[in-house]
Specification:
Structural class: alpha+beta
Number of helices: 23
Shape: globular
Helix content: 40-55%
Number of strands: 14
Radius of gyration: 30 Å
Strand content: 15-25%
């Protein structure tokens, strides 16, 4: 069986060389063996593994087991096709994908091994040469300035609906906390709006009334202090004026913004304007990212609270964290402010965790998520880093439930991104964009969303996202990489050159241009840019030595001379 297999079996791998995307190396393997190897008393299988670290280390990836029920016939040939993967690590960059066949006697378990066979080389790491940001920080500490200002909760509605949502982003649980607050009085304003084209002109009014009705019903259940409550209804006076404001703050291109603004500022009736918007180039963006966040109602609460001195807040917060006093000696805002008074991440963590015991408001969850993220950044143990990021995600998710904004969902997407949970990250980048924000904020979201799309091989989607990411270093680097991976070398050259204008002397940009020179057989470009990359950052010397992009140039002067600093 072994001799027949070695002579007649066919094994193919795509891609070859193997390619690292993000933190994962994924490939498709297909094995075919002759029918005469399919037997009742013996079994033939192929073990698949990857050798690396000067071929001293081995990672077993799986097996192709040619036994009835585990293969299919392709043109009458027993065939197994699978997708396999393994985690990327720098030490795996120089390696090879191997198979070893074996014939097994089912009765006595005797095994006859075939000689190991190399079926692919690894790794091409060019897709990793992207630029990511994923930077998010604590909520700005405006405790002293904001303590006298109203608090606000936002509620989102389905199209043509005024029914309160009880799932993601509903904020009803948080609203219940406000209802049960033990205060003498509450002054509440409900401000509602609707999107263009929604049925009827009173949808905003219906949404505001739904919230008012809910508040008064829950007040009878949760309020034991018999506080005085006044509720004022306020409506966005002009739907199209609100749309104009949202469009100006969006990530649409200047041309697309202008087209929409021209329609909105025309003298046409509102119905005709809505129909014209449906035909505009920006229509999909409006439907996906802007209209959903116009179907809202915001509840604001007017509170006044006394402030304690910083030293007093810090000492009380420590006692709360140590469980020496109860958490209710400080408000949640005071506890969060106390957390800003210490530089120690572990102490911040304890303060925020103490604050969570007395509040359901979003900033404390968000800041605790940031603490865990910062702890993960500083931890070099892979499993510990993953565990810390999981805790960050847990708290950022609660922040998102309570405050579904671009800022919070960008941080949640970034945490998932750093944890290599790509599908979840992509979903939350999308949520962040739909919620809208400042131009700078949305450009940051689109830029990191594009980086993720490059990591998962969706280069066309990345290029589309980068249209809204601004003209900066990260955008041009990732646009250059997308074009490089799509083999549009002229376009890649242009973007990498622009990136160097944005960040002169950048080693990664020079190294990328050197790869471009290797792919286009331009030895002069390879040499000059690789030399500049190495001079800017010596780490690129070892990277070039391991990089498969330069394999055909190892013996050429252009490559050798470039590495002589």
């Amino acid at each position: 069986m072994v001799k027949i297999a070695e002579k007649e079996q066919t094994i193919t791998v795509q891609p070859n060389p193997l390619v690292a995307n993000g933190q994962l190396v994924t490939f498709d393997i297909k094995g075919q063996v002759p029918q005469k190897l399919i037997r009742e008393k013996q079994r033939y299988k192929l073990d698949v593994y990857y050798e690396y670290d000067q071929l001293q280390a081995r990672e077993n990836l799986g097996s192709l087991n040619f036994e009835f029920g585990e293969f299919a016939y392709e043109q009458h040939v027993p065939t197994i096709a699978r997708q396999m993967s393994f985690n990327y690590a720098p030490k795996k960059e120089k390696g090879r994908l191997m198979v070893q066949g074996m014939a097994i006697d089912k009765k006595n378990g005797n095994v006859k091994y075939a000689d190991p066979k190399q079926i692919a080389t690894g790794l091409n790491t060019t897709p990793l040469l992207l630029v990511r940001n994923n930077a998010y920080d604590f909520v700005p500490d405006t405790y002293k300035e904001e303590s006298e200002k109203p608090a606000a909760l936002t509620f989102y509605f389905e199209e043509n609906q005024a029914k309160l949502r009880t799932y993601l982003g509903s904020n009803l649980e948080v609203l219940d906390k406000y209802i049960s607050d033990n205060v003498a009085s509450q002054s509440i304003t409900v401000t509602a709006s609707q999107a263009p084209g929604e049925t009827g002109s009173n949808m905003a009014q219906a949404r505001a009334r739904a919230l008012e009705s809910y508040y008064r019903q829950q007040l009878q259940i949760y309020d034991y202090s018999n506080k005085k409550v006044s509720i004022k209804i306020s409506l966005q006076p002009n739907t199209l004026a609100l749309l104009q404001e949202k469009v100006q703050a969006s990530a649409l291109s200047k041309q697309e913004k202008q087209e929409v603004l021209d329609i909105l500022n025309s003298s046409k009736p509102e119905k005709d304007k809505v129909q014209a918007l449906e035909k505009a180039k920006a229509s999909d963006y409006l439907q996906q990212y802007i209209y959903p966040v116009m179907r809202t109602a915001e509840v604001t609460f007017d509170y006044n609270r006394n402030r304690k001195a910083d030293y007093e807040l810090y000492l009380l917060a420590k006692k709360i964290a140590e469980e020496k006093v109860t958490a209710d000696v400080l408000t949640e805002e005071e506890l969060q402010h106390a957390a800003t008074l210490t530089p120690l991440l572990n102490e911040k963590r304890k303060f925020y965790e103490a604050a969570i015991k007395s509040t359901d408001k979003w900033p404390v969850y968000y800041n605790l998520g940031v603490v865990y993220t910062e702890m993960a950044r500083k931890d070099y143990r892979a499993k510990a880093k993953q565990a810390l990021l999981a805790k960050a995600i847990h708290n950022l998710t609660f922040a998102g439930f309570r405050n579904p904004t671009a800022k919070v969902y960008y941080s949640l997407a970034s945490a998932y991104h750093q944890r290599n949970d790509f599908l979840e990250a992509l979903q939350y980048y999308d949520y962040a964009i739909k919620l809208g924000g400042s131009e700078e904020e949305l450009q940051r979201v689109f830029a990191d969303k594009a980086a993720l799309e490059i990591e998962i091989g969706q280069y066309d989607d990345a290029i589309e996202s980068l249209r809204y990411a601004g003209d900066n270093y990260q955008t041009n680097m990732n646009m250059g990489l997308s074009y490089l991976l799509k083999e549009n070398y002229e376009g890649a050259q242009e973007f990498y050159t622009t990136a160097l204008e944005k960040k002169p002397g950048d080693a990664l940009a020079y190294y990328s241009l050197a790869i471009l020179g290797a792919r286009t057989q331009n030895e002069q470009q390879l040499e000059s840019n690789l030399r500049r990359a190495v001079r800017a950052d010596q780490a690129y010397t070892q990277k070039a030595i391991n990089d498969l992009e330069f394999d055909s140039y190892r013996d050429k002067a252009a490559y050798k001379d470039a590495l002589i600093r």
